[in-house]
Amino acid sequence: MFDLNLHCYRLLMEEPFFAALSRQLDKRANSSIPTAGVGVDPSGKFVLHYNPEYMEGMSDTRKKGILKHEFY
């Protein structure tokens, strides 16, 4: 089972710049999207949607790159 929190933690330990960005996003598993993306919910909060099956199949290096891309 994919644990997004573990990969966010690893990224934040290696690159603390992303800590502030990560805290601003709700993170929600969403199997109806093919990969990952950031959007805004009805309350105006930024949300990172990710497909756990897609993320599970990626190498750790690729997961880090995807998270960095979405945080930017």
Task: Map the helices and strands.
Layout: H1 4-14, H2 17-23, E1 25-29, E2 36-40, E3 46-50, H3 52-56, H4 60-71
Helix pairs in contact: 1-4
Overview of this protein structure:
The chain is α+β, with helices and mostly antiparallel strands. 49% of the residues lie in helices and 21% in strands. The chain contains 4 helices and 3 strands, in the order H-H-E-E-E-H-H. Strands 1-3-2 form a 3-stranded mixed β-sheet. Helix 1 (4-14) packs across helix 4. The relative contact order is 0.24. The model has no long low-confidence stretch (mean pLDDT 92).
Query: What does the overall shape look like?
Result: globular
End-to-end distance, in Å? 26 Å
Low-confidence runs: none
What amount of the residues lies in strands? 15-25%
Number of strands: 3
How would you write the strand order of the largest sheet?
Answer: 1-3-2
Query: What are the secondary-structure elements, in order, as H or E?
Result: HHEEEHH
- Main sheet overview: 3 strands, mixed
List the main descriptive attributes of the protein structure presented here:
72 residues, alpha+beta, 3-stranded mixed β-sheet, 4 helices, 3 strands, 49% helix, globular
Task: Give the gist of this structure.
The protein has 72 residues and is an alpha+beta fold. It is built from four helices and three strands.
